[in-house]
## 1
Amino acid sequence: KGNGVIGNIYAMGLALQALEATRNFYAPRKWDCAQAFSVVSAHDYQQPMAIAQVLPALVGRSYLDVAGMDCAATEDTSPNRQLPLSPVLGAHGAPRAPIQVHYSITNTLQGKHFHYSTSVTVPSGSTLLQVMEVAAEEDPQTFSFETEQTSWGTYVTSIHGLAASTEDRTYWQFLSAGDALQEGVGTYKPHAGEHIQAVFSTY
């Protein structure tokens, strides 16, 4: 893509590793990765799997380099862990300003079709998952949902009793202004007034 993204933001780690490991085969033109690295370094990765794939590329290595590593020579240099921000308080303990997010769920694919919309108020900086939780608390009969934890974060398996299925090749797709979100529900942070759509889709 013109903005330096290869696939999507979560494919970037492996893509950069592959291109770095095979750059000698891209003759006669040297592959210019500056824009792609700029995109990666500016993104706030949260999922451990995404971080694990991006870090080797950022230090000029790939998973292929693991075979030559001397693990006995490494030292424990893990950085100090920062406590996560409170869902209600900001970095300095000040209350986070509330924002309103519009959220809708739509199924025109299977069974009885439906479309429901709501607006919820959450602290600024809340994730989409937190928006969904508030919607479900306010109207559980309509906006209830189920999730499962994966190595890529929280995956929504069901909304309004309608479950995704690998057999039927269906899933819940999340969109903003008609474009698919590039982050999962556990890390994407909607802005004030944004309309998030959950659409039952097929692939």
## 2
Amino acid sequence: QARAGIISTVEVLKVMEAFVNEPNYTVWSDLSCNLGILSTLLSHTDFYEEIQVFVKDVFSPIGERLGWDPKPGEGHLDALLRGLVLGKLGKAGHKATLEEARRRFKDHVEGKHILSADLRSPVYVTILKHGDSATLDTMLKLHKQADMQEEKNRIERVLGAISQPELIQKVLTFALSEEVRPQDTVSVIGGVAGGSKQGRKAAWKFVRDNWEELYNRYQGGFLISRLIKV
């Protein structure tokens, strides 16, 4: 109804607040997705910072309950929920989440304590969103060193979280490099397009500037339609 303009988005946010004690992953996944759409729309307004505060308020209690480490008897959905919540809090700039993500990332890079697969994406996205050129360089180094394609893809999907314009350009250039498999280039560009307002503009310009190469590469297949969609 809010999307159709029948009711105010404020009413939707009030309903979302009522889910603060919700334990179910599927519900949080839906809330996260809808808040993501709202964040994207509000990134073009003065309310962007306020929606980030709202995200932190809604997701903090469940984040504190779940913590960073698995508890005995947890199921697969709890692990998924932890990754979802920590990623959401980290991207929104939740102070304690950001500090812990940086600490764990440092240990991971130095080989002191390797991050579990469930925590890698939320940690990567958090440190990139609030990172600098050194952060991006470290991530690209991890990509180069990764033995498994799964880890390379995981890194490729989150690189677009970086915020500074010149680093966004570096990620887009990386997308077309030999470091990235042709079928995975779209994931990198899509990550940039979904990462920020600056990223969307940069990705759109990049696709137009490199249209011939991209079109020839995918020859009207499903990847070109996915690229256009993102």
## 3
Amino acid sequence: PPERGIQYLIQNGFIEKGNSIETQALNVARFLLSRKGISKQMIGEYVATNHSFNALVLKYFSKEIDLVALSIDSALRKFQTFFRFPGEAQKIERLVDCFANRYIECNSSENNSLMLSRDSVFILSFAIIMLNTDLHNQTNQKSRMTSQQWIQNLRGVFSEGNLNEQFLLDIYQRIKSQEFKTGADHVTQVQKVQS
């Protein structure tokens, strides 16, 4: 499990030992973000695990990612290049929750022309992830979501009221034209070579 790997790296000096739990979590987060070759899948599993230390690592992990002045889908795209979303819905929810907090933090009211609440950013982000899966999943080639279905699905779900249709259409087109991809890592490259 990733937890044992992180513990091993700390014990053997690959990750600097912190003098507090917060410092240790920050050191782990920076290590996960800066080291090339670490499995993006294992990073996603580790930071999304429901343990207090992992949650602290996720908090510091997200604070190291600059999302200022990015559209919500561009920010989410940048955020997820550092890990692969786990398959478990609860873990995805933890990651999206952390993303929503960070997005609002980076795009305060003077920078946020949409003026979305934190909860609305969470809902829209989750919807974008589902749209990406729907549009790019190889097993779902016959019944892909249309742009009108996308807009219809998001009617009446935001506290601010319905979002601008052109704004939603722009997101739809960007997701349709370019799938969310996790950044490359050594593990993925080795698996490709082996297959």
